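Troubleshooting: if your tokenizer reports a length mismatch, compare your output against this known-good record of 237 residues.
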Amino acid sequence: MSAAPTRNSYVERRGQLETYFDRTAADTWAKLTSTAKVSRIRETVRAGRDEMRNTLLSWLPADMNGLRLLDAGCGTGALSVEAARRGAEVIAIDLAANLVNVARERVPADLGSGRIEFHVGDMLNPALGSFDYVVGMDSLIHYGANDIVATLETLMARTRRGVLFTFAPKTPLLTVMHNVGKIFPRGDRAPAIVPVTAMTLCTLIRQRPVAADWRFSQTRLVTSGFYKSQACELVRA
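Known-good structure output:
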């Protein structure tokens, strides 16, 4: 049986993320994920996110007809659109209703044989069903290692082929930024990113029963100015 994330920490952080992305920073994220002019700092974040999205898409099949994909933390839907254009049936879900509304508005008229079904809520909702692939782009970077692994375990149990996800790699610079950030008032800051090491995640995942059927396939670090995130692919053994 799959273990659930630590309830108190997972639910508390999920609530913080919903408040931030759906209310505090919805307009900011809608602008960041568009072609609108942004600050130079946000340009580096936009470029990094574009590179990361392209990386994850390059790990998915070019032909996804007949395949079902969960875009876990879909935001404004850019990855969902590209997967649907390959023929996938995409279930796109995010905690932030405002971002999902933007995603719906941005869906092009012609997706070919693919389609996107949008949801607002928790990516772990069992009612979403099972999938061939799950992609979680920067949707786990605000959680601690144990919650990341428990979330992955739950998703792996519902996935037939591959789980692609990103995490914030623990580096000296990120650790300093994380610790310094705790000094300042929260205001409208985003919930803190929680840096973890790849070794920690690998060790914790391999301790879970579901890991017997899975293996790590590839990984890639993307760095662009203020954006730093590491992608990993887990595939059925």
